[in-house]
Amino acid sequence: MRRSLLATLAVTLVSPWATADLRWPPAAAELSDMPVVLTPARLRQPQTEVPGSVTVIDRALIEASGARELYQLMRLVPGMAAVNVDGNVPTVAYHPTQARDTRRMLVLVDGRSVYQPGFARVLWNDIPLAIADIERIEISRGPNAAAYGANAYTGIINIITRHPADVTDTTVAARAGNNGVRDVRLTDGRRWHSGAIRLTATQRADDGYDARQSVFGYPQRDSKRIETLDSRGIQHLSERDTLEFFAGGSRSTLQRPANEALLDFVDYTELPREDNQAAFLQLRWSREISDRHHLRVQAYGQRSRSMTRQQLCTLDPVTGTRGPGGGIFYSREARELYEANGRDLAATLAGLTADPGVAGRYMVLASSGAPAFCHGLRQDIREQRADLEIEDTLALHDRVRLVSGASIRHERASSQFFLRGTHENHSHALFANLELNPLDPLHINLGGFYQHDDINGTAFSPRLAIIWTPAPGHGVRLVRSEAVRSVDAYEDQADTRVYPTRLPAAIRDNAASLLGWSSPELFVTQRSEGGLEPERILARELGYFGRIGQFEIDVRFFNESLTRLISRAVNPFVFEARNADRVDHRGWEAQWGWRLHRSHLLRVTAARVLTDASVRTERRMIARNSGSLLWRFDVADGWLLSTAYYLAKDYNDFRYEQATLQLARRQRIGPTELELRAVIEHRFSDHPVVFQENRHRDRSLYWLSAALSF
Amino acid sequence: MRADRPLVAILLLCLAQGAAAVSRLAVVGGTEEFRTHFTSALSAQLVAGGLPAPAIAAPRRSDLVLALGDEAFQEALHLNRPVLGLFISRNIALEAFTAGCACSAFFSEADPVRQLRLAQALFPAARRIGLITSPETSWVAGLLAPYAERESLLLVHTALADSNALARELPRLLPQVDLLLAISDERLYSEATARLILLTSYRQNKPVIGPDELFVQAGSVATSYSSGADMVKQAARAVLDFAERGWLPPPDFANVFSLRLNSHVVRAYDVPMVDPDALQRQLEAGQ
């Protein structure tokens, strides 16, 4: 079609002003009451711009993993160890070091730290959280103390639970399988005009490692039974103000093995049993000051109580049998000998009967006519924390974002057994993280966390990250970060007192004359000399995160230097707390996700970590090569098939190789939904898990579950 | 005409055979200001297309009535003149067309297939597409299904009676999908439900595509839409065709469109492709 010059001119001249205001419907934007819900997007950090390596485990992965317990999900994280190391007690550690090490990583649930600094541990069994209530888990691989403070040492696990408004059903679920698996769950969600609440109660039990073998001459006992209650509620106070509350608790009973350190001179009549109780209450007020400015104030309190009870008879050191002479181990003279030997346990045991003072005391006991020295032992721990935190997130500009805040915390640890009383720790902190985007492809993240507490003094954890995003969806990052692991109350203030309970009346009432003191204690005691400094880590990282079509890949090259480590034994029998050791990790790890088809999801992780440590125990849990492979197949409407494979070479010289196969069917029946699930966990290796005693009778564990939602 | 729209194909109707004189046009509906700007822009487009500048006439004396919006369209149908509706609800346009009116229309709704293609372009890894419809928009599922099948996409469709069930069904749907395709449906996507939909989707990390500019302004990722300026071009093409061949195209979605992306949300979801011009060209090429 011919176009005239006049016509072209007309279009050129007329169109711009004529069409500029042609909005349809006319004046729609001006008259609209459409809310603007941009705060989450404005303040959210895209994964390409995160100053570190992050693994996100979302609901699709959680469901596909077939995991029964929370800790098992962490096997999907490259470089992470997540196994039951101590019978029924899980160890979860990123770039792990010691076998029972849960002290070098921070774990948060909805912003609440479940890391217990009194005894530097995370009690994974007792986290009151059902897997079904998890929205996603974000794992920062590498130190992130600049954002989270002390103890965000090797990494951070940040668990975000399902929003109460997203749980709209009542669900009753049950699971049963071999190895004594018996689980039940009840979840209820309610919502109203301006709020919602979710409540979950669970009970789970299993027999632990069930090879029925003997450990130190006693039958292996590591079954567990755990009950949890968890709730989360939200009330929208206004368009901009939200109040959330979180409350919950747990109760667990764990069978524990015989204490190896006692076996030289005791005979168990009742093996240890650990009872734990925990409860928390958390309140969070959030205010959207504007769509560029968000303020959050959070307060929480939590307390936990742990009690390990056991019954035993202390053996007569001369006859090696039960008798009143066993009381010699609880005598004043034995303690004096132990102190004289510089607290050398072996030397004291070897010279016990030869010492004149001890020998005299033994004669008193042996001739007293008292019954055998049988009694109970109780290890008690109570921990409390109160925490108040304010966090302000402000987008100063489209290219500048500042997250800053402050917190105060009070912690209390009590134990007659480990601390001979109560110790408190007060801390306060200031933190700020500045995200700059000076040029389109360049992001700079500058942050620091200043913290002071009574035990550790002042610490500052800085971080500098430079992220280059050559194209949207691709980020190359260079990160240097430091962090500290705080000295815990036990390391700093240990004063152990192993005292007998439930002594025969004839001994208890005459303790001063029979044992030399009225409040008898085991001759072994340990006392911290204090003066410890926080463990330090310096990490350097070169990483890449990118999305290409259906692929998502993250690669991390790292060099981590852990120094001033308190690596040696710290327990009531051997206490060698010194900032004497170091560990160096270097290597690479990668995670790769591929939505290869609408029904298929493939995910692969791999890690290679080369470790150099000043003491072997710090190398025990690090696998030089590890990885996982997960495939999810949404077969057809309601059917799901998934499988996962995990490999670690090696944990404590033992190969860990396991696969999971899951078949699930979800069926709507009117207003209700029925879900049936069958899971098999199969071990490919005959090797035990970390330690010799951790063995299963069968290579396969299986369970079936049913859940009804209405 | 697209092969995947059998209804439209069946309803194709020639309003007249041969060339038709379009010397007098009437534009009805909208606000006076909008109408004035629209008419000016349209005249310029028609002149640029080689048509003598048509006179603006009273509707009853015009050769073709351009009706802006549902109300004007329905009123214009009684004028016994050929009517081209612009920004007309699909249901109203098809109802009139099947009743045998001498009319055609370009719908006010964005083409759902184009919206889905937009979603694909922004989120290539998204293979499971969530779709919620009310009884008035249940046809969208049928429209999208062949395209989804061809592209190996899984369309997870939830049909709701109204928005009262959104709060319960949206959290159920989102975990099963990679993104939510929000369609033009005032029963479901309105000022009253935007907050619920957008906050729920943010929480579950599931982007929302569509349904319109206002929703993008509120917090959805992106949408394609036909602005007034786009509709000017669309109408000009139809008028030129009408003048040249004597018939109007059957009612359909407008294929002249603009894109609106929310840069904050695009960034938050790490969208790999954000050049709007390239995106527009990609979508236009596939039409």
Automatic annotation (TrEMBL), chain A:
Residues 1-20 form the signal peptide. Its main location: membrane. It is found in: Cell outer membrane. Keywords: Cell outer membrane, Membrane, Receptor, Signal, TonB box, Transmembrane, Transmembrane beta strand, Transport. It is a multi-pass membrane protein. Residues 417-649 form the TonB-dependent receptor-like beta-barrel domain. It holds the Pfam family TonB_dep_Rec_b-barrel. Residues 47-155 form the TonB-dependent receptor plug domain. Belongs to the TonB-dependent receptor family. PANTHER family: BLL4766 PROTEIN (PTHR30069:SF27), TONB-DEPENDENT OUTER MEMBRANE RECEPTOR (PTHR30069). This is TonB-dependent receptor. It comes from Alcanivorax quisquiliarum.
UniProtKB/TrEMBL annotation, chain B:
The keyword Cell wall biogenesis/degradation does not apply. The keyword Signal applies. Pfam families: ABC_sub_bind (PF04392). Residues 1-21 form the signal peptide. InterPro entries: ABC_transpt-TYRBP-like. Keywords: Signal. This is ABC transporter substrate-binding protein. It comes from Alcanivorax quisquiliarum.
